[in-house]
Amino acid sequence: MARRTLPLIHHLLRKPSPPSLGLGFDQTSVRSVTYMPRPGDGAPRAVTLIPGDGIGPLVTGAVQQVMETMHAPVYFESYDVHGDMTRVPQEVIDSIRKNKVCLKGGLATPVGGGVSSLNVQLRKELDLYASLVNCFNLEGLPTRHENVDIVVIRENTEGEYSGLEHEVVPGVVESLKVITKFCSERIAKYAFEYAYLNNRKKVTAVHKANIMKLADGLFLESCREVATKYPGIKYNEIIVDNCCMQLVSKPEQFDVMVTPNLYGNLVANTAAGIAGGTGVMPGGNVGADHAVFEQGASAGNVGNENIVEQKKANPVALLLSSAMMLRHLQFPSFADRLETAVKRVIAEGKYRTKDLGGRSTTQEVVDAVIAVLD
């Protein structure tokens, strides 16, 4: 059953955050401009919730606890979906179409066997053409590299994920990579618009056009055309293999990266590992009408049996993704409170899950965040 929570009006009078799907900017308690909501902005919003597989119910449960503590103006409509299903149930699709926003845990994707990924189904069904993952250093979490703040924007609906595979003759399989002008242009436009709205200075297109001259060549051509409309933003290009090498050696050189589908998955997970781990990197998938928020990097988003049994899943990535969701819903003060609380718990270092070098359970991390919020 959906549970409604009523907003606290005084929380809406805090300073708004910049218009962004991303994270990683400094917080300040100085309110230079008062946030003036429009009439009705505080009405609770319905959000479709998919707990998912593995650690999914643990981390989505963490988000629900924190939202309830904040009295955030959202309530969840929860649906039982698992990666071994043949299709996403129609009632779930209908719920997301109605609510426009979804929060989801990881869905396990079977390897081989001809079962299609429900994650890919969701993106195609709802035309969630842009995946955004923000990979940045967190204060108090030591990493090999400093000053990392990368936003990976990935085309989400075509490329190698088109699902067009068949066996030509026994022992020979053909898999088609589809690149279109339409999809390449709109992901490039989204990347440059994101950079413009968030005061980012550079967009880097990742490609393999030296080998796939027509497919990746079309992607690059589209990026170059869009780049001419944003003269204030620097544009450059990098071949994907060199990109991976540069990421692990000098990640601070990158700002916004725009990629075709497969490269973006690899680049986002690599950048997440460099910046602090997949357990702390937020992300979302957005289209013209709908948005689905989840852990930014796909690696580890389902976890393993030991983590589930010990209840030691890291909830940070999904908590930060839910802050992105709150900004998307135009509840910036709630997003600021949540993000600040999570970052403070990480900075203090007392409560951390195993992937961050600690021994805390999911609930202990959640309790620490709630204590800061209170």
Overview of the molecule:
The chain is α/β, with parallel strands linked by helices and 374 residues long. Helix content is 36%, strand content 17%. It has helices at 56-70, 90-99, 118-125, 181-197, 215-227, 240-249, 261-275, 305-310, 316-328, 332-348, 362-373; strands spanning 45-50, 74-78, 101-104, 130-136, 149-155, 165-169, 172-175, 202-207, 234-239, 256-259, 282-286, 291-295. Strands 2-1-3-12-11-4-5-10-8-9 form a ten-stranded mixed beta sheet, with helices on both faces. The chain starts with 44 loop residues before the first strand and ends with a helix. Mean pLDDT is 89; it is low at 1-28.
Shape: globular
| Pattern of helices and strands | EHEHEHEEEEHEHEHEHEEHHHH
Largest sheet: 10 strands, mixed
The fraction of residues assigned to DSSP E strands is 15-25%
Separation, N- and C-terminal Cα atoms: 27 Å
Name the average pLDDT: 89
**Broad structural category:** alpha/beta
State the total count of DSSP E strands.
12
Please give the order of strands in the largest beta sheet. Answer: 2-1-3-12-11-4-5-10-8-9
The radius of gyration is 20 Å
Summed up, the helix count is 11
Low-pLDDT residue intervals, each spanning 5 or more residues = 1-28
Tell me roughly what share of residues is in helical segments.
Answer: 25-40%
